[in-house]
Specification:
This protein is α/β, with parallel strands linked by helices and about 400 residues long. The chain contains 12 helices and 14 strands. Strands 5-4-3-6-9 form a 5-stranded mixed sheet, with helices on both faces. It has a 5-stranded mixed sheet with strand order 12-11-10-13-14, with helices on both faces. Bound molecules: zinc ion (ZN).
Length: about 400
């Protein structure tokens, strides 16, 4: 990266300023506590350029100065951090049975959160309900005092590659829904960016983007709930979600584990979802959608049919974990979603299968980390908020 010089046109100068701003914000985001001198060294910028950009970022509430500390430049400098107090990012997840919302700071700290149970209904009714919740959230005194950078919405299905269109949400019965267009008229005052993504992709993105310190080089998130999806993110420096040409990358719930198996909502037979998903477990055990699955099963733990169903579902989940490991080989796999609450009867056979079989390709598991999230309630909504920040840092909205 170079510093602006007199020979550049005004447009080039603006472009360079944005590029420098993005580079500086990304460095401070990933390595909180850097000094101006550290940044100049790492971003290959002059100290004067860094100094000027940082002054603007301080004034605009993007970063704050902390304690004095040693730096690579010799003289001590002020540690720099993302400003946790000035901006906010809104994130929302449209789940099959629930709406979940967060308002985050720039560091991914959740300032306010809320959730609302709902019975699956039309996109229009869902948009109106979500808008009401978002309006309440944005009006909360802790949020209304902040500058809002925008809203990210995560939905349970693949997104069209070229525009924000939810292609298919089989567990909601929705098809080709321009959900943001339905939401926008309800929230005329909500400023900033408006983004939409698949729920597992948003969760994967947030899990990598808001990480500081020992950041994995790539990460896969498995969302195990009513359905099963996954997201894969590479490049910790500028995280990029793998999408595929039709936005279908990561739809592991519809990879086939039993070619002659049960019919799935998607029309194929023997998809992973027919063996391990909230809907398949409910169907096998006769548990209605109005009941909380984890609570319903807690009272039936000794029922042999429950034990068998969860053991088989766990085996299928273990197969998916191993297939994901061999397909994408991420440095970290994160398992979240409401099925994790079913605990050991489901997870023990899954992890057992994964750990028993992981070393068949010798030595492949040495650097792979599997994390199971006990509580992933707001992981997806927070990930949608992370995507807003990433776009804002890239300069897609007009900030200094
Ligand atoms: Zn399927």
């Amino acid at each position: 990266m170079t510093s602006p010089s007199k020979k550049h046109h005004a447009g080039d100068l603006l472009f360079l300023k944005r590029l420098n701003r993005s580079a500086i914000l990304n460095l401070v985001r990933r390595s909180p506590g850097m000094t101006r001198a550290d940044i100049a060294t790492q971003a290959h910028l002059t100290k004067a350029t860094v100094g000027g950009s940082i002054q603007k970022l301080l004034e605009a509430g993007w970063i704050v100065e902390g304690e004095l500390q040693k730096s690579s430049g010799g003289r001590p400098g002020r540690a720099l951090y993302l400003d946790d107090q000035y901006h906010t990012l809104l994130g929302a997840e449209v789940g099959v049975h629930e709406l979940r919302l967060v308002a985050c700071s720039l560091t991914g700290r959740i300032i306010q959160q809320r959730q609302l149970r709902l019975t699956p209904t039309t996109p229009e009714v869902t948009a109106a309900l979500l808008a009401e919740q978002l309006h309440e959230l944005a009006s909360h005194p802790d949020i209304a005092c902040r500058q809002c950078l925008g809203l990210g919405v995560a939905v349970p299905g693949p997104i069209a590659p070229s525009r924000p269109l939810l292609r298919l949400a089989p567990n909601l019965g929705w098809q080709d829904v321009p959900f943001l267009e339905l939401l926008r008229p309800h929230l005329p005052a909500l400023s900033g960016l408006w983004l939409m993504d698949n729920e597992a992709k948003a969760a994967a993105f947030g899990e990598l983007y808001f990480r500081t310190g020992n950041v994995p080089s790539s990460l896969a998130y498995i969302s195990a709930g009513t359905g099963i999806g996954s997201g894969f993110v590479e490049n910790a420096h500028a995280p990029l979600v793998t999408r595929g040409i039709q936005g279908l990358a990561g739809e592991i719930g519809h990879t086939i584990l039993q070619p002659d198996g049960m019919y799935c909502h998607c029309g194929n037979r023997g998809c992973a979802e027919t063996l391990v998903s909230g809907w398949a477990i409910r169907a096998t055990l006769g548990i209605g959608e109005e009941e909380n699955l984890a609570e319903a099963l807690r009272t039936r733990q000794q029922d042999p049919k429950v034990k068998t169903t969860l053991r088989q579902a766990g085996g299928a989940l273990g197969t998916l974990l191993l297939n994901l490991h061999h397909t994408l080989n991420p440095s970290e796999i994160v398992l979240g979603g409401s099925l994790v609450q079913l605990g050991a009867p489901l997870l023990a056979p899954a992890l057992d299968y994964f750990e028993t079989n992981q070393n068949r390709l010798r030595g492949t598991m040495d650097q792979v980390r599997l994390r199971v999230l006990d509580d992933s309630t707001f992981v997806t909504a927070r990930g949608a908020a992370a995507q807003v920040l990433a776009e804002a840092v890239q300069g897609f909205i007009d900030t200094p």
